[in-house]
Amino acid sequence: MSIFESLESQVRSYCRGWPTVFDRATGSHLYSEDGREYLDFFAGAGALNYGHNNPVLKAALLEYLGRDGVTHALDMTTVAKRDFLETFQDTILRPRELDYKVMFPGPAGANAVEAALKLVRKVTGRESIINFTNAFHGMTLGALSVTGNSLKRGGAGIPLVHATPMPYDNYFDGQTPDFLFFEKLLQDSGSGLNEPAAVIVETVQGEGGINVARMEWLQGLAELCQRHDILLIVDDVQMGCGRTGPFFSFEAAGITPDVVCLSKSIGGYGLPLALTLIRRDLDIWEPGEHNGTFRGVNPAFVTGTTALREYWQDDKLEKSTLAKGETIGRALKEIVEAHPSVPMQPKGRGLARGLAFDTGDLAGSVCSQAFERGLLIETSGPDGEVAKLMPALTVTDDEVEEGLRLVAESVAAAVG
């Protein structure tokens, strides 16, 4: 481990909670170099919805590389990009009657968010963005400006401006005022609220603590945006690609955002890829106005296309995700009931689940105990107070059962 301590930056984080050197991975399991097996309920922070080294995706990738398929092409047209766009249109957009243009802004979720923020300001001529408490949208300056976490915001080193936070659903001790107060601010010339270009929201705040917005809250937000000519951006970087069940996390609310940000598992294999989906009439970019060297990683197009064809031609994965999510939800409730003297709260939707504790120390202890037992889970929330479970969507029923047993043991050990 000495090379990591002596040469790698102090900014590293996940490796501090999981102090081992990983060597191999397959499905829902990681293996350290000394051969120990770990059950992965982290899934690359949502970048591995189809598991590690998924054999179907791997076969497509190896075949593409074996025939010397194009790897790097900036935004040039390639066979791999064409296949991806056609498959995404036929498998995802058309069945949902979504008429979006697809922008490849760069390799990561923060790139998708930055492009979205830049575009809505260009379209509306306004500067202000409405964001929400405990939101997380990325580590670049624009994305940080609409992120709530003070530690991450503090790393910017400069004032983060042109964004106004509003309370997320259930922010005030389980309650959120209806949107009348927001509308009052928009209508009152004395409120001091700059006319916003857009609202950016996560339907489930993953890094913010597995905070789940109610469907009626999301619907109310979409209606307010429509009434006041405010564009609606849904950040589906972590919760998209089936994490909550449907491909898009906003589908259950029956809303249609103006802009959608996707990354993480859209590349299928853990390869970098990000999309900014834009309502067709909003696509007013000039050629090259927003660019980047890694706007389309062609091997990610290949694995992303294969994932769409393999898992999204029907609703089998969606139903499986919802069923497994309910199983985990029930198990977390049972864990809470088994420790009535310890304040705990089960949270989540689909296969984004968590146990909220009073302190980050307790949640951190649960995750440490899990690691000792061979299970990888992380903390989330503003104070790290939530033990977060996000297994691959392809996790088996037996693996879910094993993981939940280890979670129960870890909680029992942590709370004494």
UniProtKB/TrEMBL annotation:
<dbReference type="InterPro" id="IPR015421">
    <property type="entry name" value="PyrdxlP-dep_Trfase_major"/>
</dbReference>
<comment type="similarity">
    <text>Belongs to the class-III pyridoxal-phosphate-dependent aminotransferase family.</text>
</comment>
<protein>
    <recommendedName>
        <fullName>Diaminobutyrate--2-oxoglutarate transaminase</fullName>
        <ecNumber>2.6.1.76</ecNumber>
    </recommendedName>
</protein>
<dbReference type="InterPro" id="IPR015422">
    <property type="entry name" value="PyrdxlP-dep_Trfase_small"/>
</dbReference>
<comment type="pathway">
    <text>Amine and polyamine biosynthesis; ectoine biosynthesis; L-ectoine from L-aspartate 4-semialdehyde: step 1/3.</text>
</comment>
<dbReference type="InterPro" id="IPR005814">
    <property type="entry name" value="Aminotrans_3"/>
</dbReference>
<dbReference type="InterPro" id="IPR015424">
    <property type="entry name" value="PyrdxlP-dep_Trfase"/>
</dbReference>
<dbReference type="InterPro" id="IPR012773">
    <property type="entry name" value="Ectoine_EctB"/>
</dbReference>
<dbReference type="Pfam" id="PF00202">
    <property type="entry name" value="Aminotran_3"/>
</dbReference>
<keyword id="KW-0032">Aminotransferase</keyword>
<keyword id="KW-0663">Pyridoxal phosphate</keyword>
<dbReference type="InterPro" id="IPR004637">
    <property type="entry name" value="Dat"/>
</dbReference>
<dbReference type="InterPro" id="IPR049704">
    <property type="entry name" value="Aminotrans_3_PPA_site"/>
</dbReference>
<keyword id="KW-0808">Transferase</keyword>
